[in-house]
């Protein structure tokens, strides 16, 4: 069980990758009517696509709700998703042998686990219920004109265009969501980068960017109440995330203040910014500009090359070759997970 307990919202995700089912329990949501078809379309983006970057595991991922009548959210609800295509036999030879850079060894240190089938509660599979809760939160935010859209900005060494300094329209955001591999450009080159890694029995990482538009200024607070910290903490719930930055992030460290600062101007009685290098947040509080977040994803640890690990039962160094079904690149399927995390963070702040 993993728990997010915000100011108003509580989200509890439970289950394991190869258990009978996984699920989510939610409380504190505002009352409104959600669209099940739109939610299904959203969660489908997290499913394997059959493309080169995606696992061959096929799950329907149809949530079974309780606490919801006539599609009306009334504060608290829950949803269960059944695991129907698990193959635990793929992990028989890995008993007691932690896969490099997975959570297996840390899991063993914490709980004494030796059966690492499917990654258990640490699996990316656990983002399916996250997307149910996040997808509903996203619908509420859209009703009040707050838009959230994530896209692939780089795969391996291939870097695409960024929206960091620009505006994103509702139509552009919808177009990104509709695509199986949402990116602003260089899609062909990015897919080729993944194909090369897959051909080498390897995997590749990348970056995603998420843009929030329509959020008013004044949301968040200083220090522990900062909006950046809250958003980042939920994004880090997505497995394989290894870095989160806002605006120009780490690039600001090599700039002078004259380059990094966002100048202000007044027009028609309103205040605007000449640039958005701060990513729409100052002092932990939204400034009314677009919030821009960049997320770094490590390569999928499950690769088909021989790797070195230890046999925790025999206490000896061994070689393993991982079998089963794994993503060559997790970034495209992680986009709705990022949007879900951001939506839950923002919803908890504004209700």
- The strand count comes to 18
Main sheet: strand order: 1-2-3-7-5
CATH fold type: Chorismate synthase, AroC fold
Biggest sheet features: 5 strands, antiparallel
**Rg estimate, integer Å:** 21 Å
Q: What would you give as the CATH superfamily?
A: Chorismate synthase AroC
Classified by CATH, the class is Alpha Beta
Order of helices and strands: EEEEHEEEHHEEHHEHEHEEEEEEEH
Unreliable stretches covering 5 or more consecutive residues: none
Secondary-structure-derived class = alpha+beta
Q: Which term fits the overall shape?
A: globular
Distance linking N and C termini: 25 Å
The CATH architecture can be given as: 4-Layer Sandwich
Return the domain count: 1
Q: How many helical elements?
A: 8
State which percent range the strand residues make up. Answer: 15-25%
> What oligomeric state do these chains adopt?
single chain
Mean pLDDT: 91
Short note summarizing the structure:
This protein is α+β, with helices and mostly antiparallel strands and 351 residues long. Helices cover 25% and strands 25% of the residues.
Characterization of this structure:
The chain is α+β, with helices and mostly antiparallel strands. The protein has a single domain, classed as Chorismate synthase, AroC fold, CATH 3.60.150. 25% of the residues lie in helices and 25% in strands. The chain has eight helices and 18 strands. The strands form six sheets. A five-stranded antiparallel sheet has the order 1-2-3-7-5, with helices on one face. α1 crosses α3, α3 crosses α8 and α6 runs antiparallel to α8. The two termini are 25 Å apart.
């Amino acid at each position: 069980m993993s728990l997010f307990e915000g100011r108003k919202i509580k989200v509890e995700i439970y289950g394991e990758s190869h258990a009978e089912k996984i699920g989510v329990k939610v409380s504190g949501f505002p009352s409104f009517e959600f669209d099940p078809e739109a939610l299904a379309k959203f969660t489908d983006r997290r499913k394997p696509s059959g493309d080169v970057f995606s696992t061959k595991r096929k799950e329907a991922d149809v949530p079974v709700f309780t606490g919801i009548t006539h599609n009306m959210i009334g504060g608290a609800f829950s949803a269960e998703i059944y695991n129907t295509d698990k193959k635990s036999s793929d992990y028989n030879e890995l008993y007691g042998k932690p896969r490099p850079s997975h959570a297996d060894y840390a899991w063993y240190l914490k709980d004494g686990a030796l059966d690492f089938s499917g990654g258990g509660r640490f699996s990316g599979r656990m983002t399916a219920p996250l997307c149910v809760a996040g997808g509903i939160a996203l619908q509420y935010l859209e009703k009040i004109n707050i838009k959230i859209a994530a896209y692939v900005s780089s795969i391996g060494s291939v870097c695409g265009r960024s929206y960091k300094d620009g505006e994103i329209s509702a139509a552009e955001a919808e177009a990104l969501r509709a695509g199986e591999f949402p990116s602003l450009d260089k899609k062909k080159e990015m897919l080729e980068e993944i194909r090369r890694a897959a051909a080498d029995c390897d995997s590749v990482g990348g970056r995603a960017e998420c843009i929030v538009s329509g959020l008013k200024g004044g949301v968040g607070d200083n220090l522990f109440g900062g909006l950046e910290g809250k958003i980042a903490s939920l994004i880090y719930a997505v497995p394989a995330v290894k870095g989160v930055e806002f605006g120009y992030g780490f690039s600001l460290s090599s700039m002078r203040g004259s380059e990094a600062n966002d100048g202000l101007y007044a027009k028609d009685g309103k205040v605007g910014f000449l640039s958005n290098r701060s990513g729409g947040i100052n002092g932990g509080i939204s400034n009314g500009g677009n919030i821009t977040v960049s997320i770094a994803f490590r390569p999928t640890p499950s690769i088909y090359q021989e790797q070195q690990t230890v046999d925790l039962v025999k206490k000896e160094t061994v070689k393993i070759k991982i079998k089963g079904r794994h993503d060559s690149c997790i970034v495209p399927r992680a986009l709705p997970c990022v949007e879900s995390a951001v939506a839950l963070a923002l919803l908890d702040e504004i209700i």
